[in-house]
TrEMBL record:
GO molecular function: GTP binding; GTPase activity; translation elongation factor activity
Xref: Pfam families: GTP_EFTU, GTP_EFTU_D2
Protein name per Swiss-Prot or TrEMBL: Elongation factor Tu, chloroplastic
Keywords: Elongation factor, GTP-binding, Hydrolase, Nucleotide-binding, Plastid, Protein biosynthesis
PANTHER family, per database record: ELONGATION FACTOR TU, CHLOROPLASTIC (PTHR43721:SF5), ELONGATION FACTOR TU-RELATED (PTHR43721)
All copies of domain Tr-type G, residue ranges: 1-112
Organism: Codium gracile
Keyword Phosphoprotein appears in the UniProt entry: no
């Protein structure tokens, strides 16, 4: 799911439509709208007109515009209510942020984690940690993995086997990771030059690299 932020003072902009189209193309199933900068609009009818325009725009791109929740608020005034790392819960703008997140929890379904298939993770970044080794980071696309298991490094270069010696997510050490996690994986015997973005880590013998493939491409129109 996604939160679409639209200025209440300006209404949907060209980039708003671009983001909705992109969300549709990549398969985002549900959207919640946050109508920001509501403090800059004195006329309630103007905000209602902006909401109608947002609903029409969402419907144009095959989202259920009439059903999608629209929460009004002011991110700046909510942020300014923070004092000494505490939140003024009585502030109406802070309450609207809570309302936004409650709506996200209720309206946007939890994604299904594809844990039954063989492990696969596309590598997004590589870092070298002195004294520990090479860490590959990315989002686990499917399956699950545990410390001590063997994986293959596939793509762009010769396929190599390596053993996972550590897992970490948001500075928390893990024993296992499952589909949907954004994780850092410490790899035994792999140098930083051996691995790069675009390669994948996978269960041994579960995939192989290809040089030729068929693809379906959507070309954006000039208006989009």
């Amino acid at each position: 799911g996604a939160i679409l932020v639209v200025s209440g003072a300006d209404g949907p902009m060209p980039q708003t439509k671009e983001h909705i189209l992109l969300a549709k193309q990549v398969g985002v199933p549900a959207i919640v709208v946050f109508l920001n900068k509501a403090d800059q609009v004195d006329d309630e009818e103007l905000l209602e007109l902006v909401e109608l325009e947002i609903q029409e725009t969402l419907t144009t791109y095959e989202y259920p515009g009439d059903e999608i929740p629209i929460i009004t608020g002011s991110a700046l005034l909510a942020l300014e209510s923070l004092t000494q790392d505490t939140i003024d819960n009585s502030n109406k703008w802070v309450q609207q942020i809570y309302h936004l997140m409650d709506t996200v929890d209720q309206y946007i379904p939890l994604p299904k984690r594809d844990t039954d298939k063989p492990f696969l993770m596309a590598i997004e970044n590589v870092v070298s940690i002195t004294g520990r080794g090479t860490v590959a980071t990315g989002r686990v696309e499917r399956g699950m993995i545990e410390v001590g298991q063997t994986v293959e490094l596939v793509g762009l270069k010769t396929t190599k086997e390596t053993i996972i010696t550590g897992l970490e997510m948001f500075q928390k050490t893990l024993e296992k990771s499952v589909a949907g996690d954004n994780v850092g994986i410490l790899l035994r015997g792999i140098q930083k030059d051996d691995i790069q973005r675009g390669m994948v880590l996978a269960k041994p013998a579960s995939i192989r690299p290809h040089r030729h493939f068929q693809a379906q491409v959507y070309i954006l129109k000039k208006e989009e």
